[in-house]
Specification:
Elements (H helix, E strand, L loop, with lengths): L1 E7 L6 H13 L4 E6 L13 H11 L6 E3 L2 H5 L5 H11 L4 E7 H4 L8 H7 L1 E5 L14 E3 L7 H7 L7 H13 L1
Parallel strand pairs: 1-2, 1-4, 2-3, 4-5, 5-6
Length: about 180
């Protein structure tokens, strides 16, 4: 089985995430794409929406797509979980031939700082989603690139409360949750 893994905070899920998934399924020859929301990103100290709310939103967003599976492995750890741990979990629980690890261009310059990076590099093929204005050179991996023509970021969305960046089928729910969190 060939899979793609797309992890992140998804705090909240936005149209950029949706387009990354659609582009990856179109460009990569995979049997399944695992979306893996973090409990807490190893490089962050907090989240806005609870892990369970983010998981529910991703399930709602991709409920019609049989190739997308929302995986709660990191949430169930109830702590910061590294990508290496998650990839090891997937390899131990599924019969996998190829793993494409989808990351944003902003992660590329510091990829060598990730936990067990050298071992991780042996387990996965990196796929970098491009973004305007972000340097793509590095000395650590030779990735495949996915060209995405959208400027959407959860950080910017939260700062500006720009609900136009939320997929239509999630807008009402995100607005309601946002007020409660």
């Amino acid at each position: 089985m060939d899979i793609a893994v797309f992890g992140g905070s998804f705090d909240p899920p936005h149209i950029g995430h949706e387009q990354i998934v659609n582009l990856a399924l179109q460009e990569l020859k995979v049997d399944k794409l695992f979306m893996i929301p973090t409990f807490l990103n190893p490089f962050k100290d907090s989240f806005h929406l609870s892990p369970n709310k983010r998981f529910e939103l991703l399930q709602e967003l991709f409920k019609e797509n049989k190739k997308v599976e929302i995986c709660d492995y990191e949430i169930l750890q109830n702590k910061k979980t590294t990508t290496f741990e998650t990839i090891s979990f997937l390899k131990n629980n599924y019969k996998i031939d190829t793993i494409y690890l989808i990351i944003g261009a902003d992660n590329l310059k510091n990829i060598h700082l990730w936990y067990n990076f050298l071992e991780l590099r042996e387990l996965v093929s990196f796929v970098v989603v491009t973004r305007d204005g972000i340097e793509l050179t590095n000395d650590y991996v030779k990735p495949t690139y996915l060209q995405l023509d959208i400027d959407a970021s959860s950080t910017v969305l939260r700062k500006n409360m720009n609900f136009d960046l939320i997929p239509e089928n999630l807008k009402k729910k995100v607005k309601k949750i946002w007020k409660q969190e």
